[in-house]
Design a protein that fits this description.
The chain is an alpha/beta fold and 234 residues long. The protein has a single domain, classed as Rossmann fold (3-Layer(aba) Sandwich), CATH 3.40.50. Helix content is 45%, strand content 16%. The chain has a seven-stranded parallel β-sheet, with helices on both faces. Helix 1 crosses helix 8, helix 3 runs parallel beside helix 4 and helix 4 packs parallel to helix 6. The protein is globular.
Amino acid sequence: MAPRALVTGASSGIGAACARQLLHEGWSVAVSARRAAPLRALAEEFPARVHVVSADLTSTADLERLAAEVAAWTPSLDAAIFAAGDFFMAPMAATSSAEFERLWRLTVWSRFMLVRSLLPQLQAGTPHPRALVHIASLAAHHDFPDETAYLSAMHGLVGLARAQDAELRPRGIRVSLLSPGTVRTPLTQRHMAPAALTGALEPEAIAASALHLIAVIRAGGYIPEILHLPQNST
């Protein structure tokens, strides 16, 4: 049977590139995002190997439904790539409590909830170590003004991933981080000026790094984190 993976945030950007590369390598993939149309298009391109679940990961009900549908789709998961995310830039005084909480729920809380819910599938008898990859950001390693919500959520994600790896490695599950700099995606194109995207990374490059992390883990190795810098970094 083909190895099976879950990819969140798979409607565009990094998540879509990760799902596509996994499919090209022969995986079967459960794809999740709020927008169902791009997921259905991917399912039509790769019939019988894509399972579509439209979900808002800030919603408890949607998270529970996603976990239940993945469990019904497969008795075991070989890997998961958590790419769903958002970017929010504003001074602290202009950041509402609702916006702060929404970003934390999407970035940290949803990944805690999903991994906890999917432990039965992740622990089911596959011959290889299972691989979890969290798409984070170089922002977790640098300080920038006017990004209190985003930076704090990314720091929380790093702590979550390290705690998950420490707890789950005895069960044959390894958790890695992939922290890119600026990536050219629909999200960054909405929030950033064109000049700020000069030399930005392409989603396919990040997907290649994510699949490398999975391959290393499945081969019995481990890389805690990849920092993927854009060309214009110094």
